[in-house]
């Protein structure tokens, strides 16, 4: 995702083969955000929001696992493995 964001600022990279592969990988995920986040002039902030969401998912999953371990299983000794 970060490579796509940085390469999108370089017009020459859009014709490169590696950029097309990255675009095929990243574009379906970005399409979810582009539906709801409009462009601001020439600036598309949907990749930034998508990257922030991608970074937040592991944090949310770990917090949910810790909650389950502590409050449902009452096994605080498992926290050292999470």
UniProtKB/TrEMBL annotation:
Pfam families found in the cross-reference section: CCB3_YggT
Stretches that traverse the bilayer: 49-73
GO CC entries: membrane
Keyword annotations from UniProtKB, A to Z: Membrane, Transmembrane, Transmembrane helix
InterPro entries (UniProt xref): CCB3/YggT (IPR003425)
PANTHER family: PROTEIN COFACTOR ASSEMBLY OF COMPLEX C SUBUNIT B CCB3, CHLOROPLASTIC-RELATED, YLMG HOMOLOG PROTEIN 2, CHLOROPLASTIC
Family classification: Belongs to the YggT family.
Protein name: YGGT family protein
Source organism (scientific name): Chlamydia avium 10DC88
